[in-house]
Design goal:
globular, alpha/beta, UDP-N-acetylmuramoyl-L-alanine:D-glutamate ligase, 9-stranded mixed β-sheet, 4-stranded mixed β-sheet, 13 strands, 10 helices
């Protein structure tokens, strides 16, 4: 039996700086990107946060609907959040504008009502939803969701430049990640959290350290990504590492979201035997991320495109 995926987190417009200095708006936001990637893989996905009634919000809504995502909240009259992205040597850096915006226009009770009205599945969150004080709402939702039988997925996706108080931000992220059943972290996330000697060869040690810091029974599935070096996936101790596929990179915007969205979809659509297929799950998710990296902005591939890669 398949599991639904519900996603809690930001949707925004990625305004990507062009060589002539103009900004090109593209739909984005880490959880939003993941929502699209999981739906395009074939999973049943619902997006929990409100989208704005403004023009950008309508574009965000239209794309989710086209990808087969269910919208769980009514539109908000608040504006769409913006991110300004500078890309150098294929690597993005971000500036965010997130005060008084639509995707933060929700309550703990409104999200819990959606979870209570569905058979328990996978609740995914992370990224900007973990920035204080937003994390207080997310923490309350995660704790209640686990009590309702939901499996909690977290993509850390730290944005240090967004935080006025980085130690408080890191503490907020840790307060949620230690409850996660499934966790994704990048090498940059781990370094910001204080880990040292972060590379693919040290994946086993890094996973063990993460699990030792979590609540008992948490972090049964952990994915670690290392940029151009590769990625590692561990499911209940069954693990596999792979280098990245050979591609011509346009940019890496949304690569991690595409990777984790495809991974969650794999587990949601085939709940049984995940540990036995850890290598194939990792391989297919990395192929999906690689395809995304050949395109500007986050444009996750369809399942047919991944199979044909």
């Amino acid at each position: 039996m398949t599991s639904p995926i519900f996603v809690l987190g930001e949707a925004l417009m990625d305004c990507i700086a062009q060589p002539d200095g103009q900004l090109k708006p593209l739909i984005g936001g880490s959880p939003y990107n993941l929502t699209r990637a999981a739906a395009l893989r074939g999973a049943s996905v619902a997006y929990l946060n409100p989208l704005s009634c403004d023009n950008f919000g309508q574009q965000l809504q239209a794309q989710l609907l086209a990808d087969g995502v269910r919208l769980a909240s009514a539109p908000s009259h608040r504006p769409t959040s913006l991110a300004v992205i500078q890309v150098k040597n294929g690597q993005p850096s971000y500036g965010f504008y997130r005060e008084g915006i639509a995707d933060r226009d929700y309550s703990v009770d409104s999200v819990l009502a959606q979870l209570q009205g569905s058979p328990p599945g996978i609740l995914h969150t992370g990224s900007l939803a973990l920035v204080p004080p937003e994390h207080d709402k997310v923490l309350a939702i995660v704790e209640r969701a686990k009590a309702l039988g939901w499996t909690v997925s977290v993509d850390i996706n730290l944005r240090p430049k967004l935080a006025d108080d980085l130690p408080a931000y890191v503490a907020a992220v840790r307060s949620v990640m230690v409850l996660a059943d499934w966790l994704k972290a990048s090498d940059e996330d781990l370094e910001t959290l204080g880990f040292t000697d972060v590379n693919l060869a040290q994946s086993g040690r890094l996973v063990q350290t993460l699990r030792a810091s979590a609540q008992p029974g948490a972090l049964s599935r952990v994915a670690l990504t290392f940029g151009g070096e590769g990625a590692h996936l561990d499911i209940d101790g069954q693990h596999h590492s792979l280098p990245v596929p050979a591609i011509t990179v346009t940019d890496t915007v949304g690569a991690g979201d595409t990777f984790w969205g495809n991974t969650l979809a794999d587990w949601a659509m085939q709940p049984e035997g995940a540990a036995a297929r850890v290598a194939s799950t990792l391989d297919l998710s990395m192929k999906a991320a690689a395809i995304n990296c050949t395109r500007q902005g986050c444009q996750p591939p369809t399942w047919n495109e991944v199979q044909a890669f």
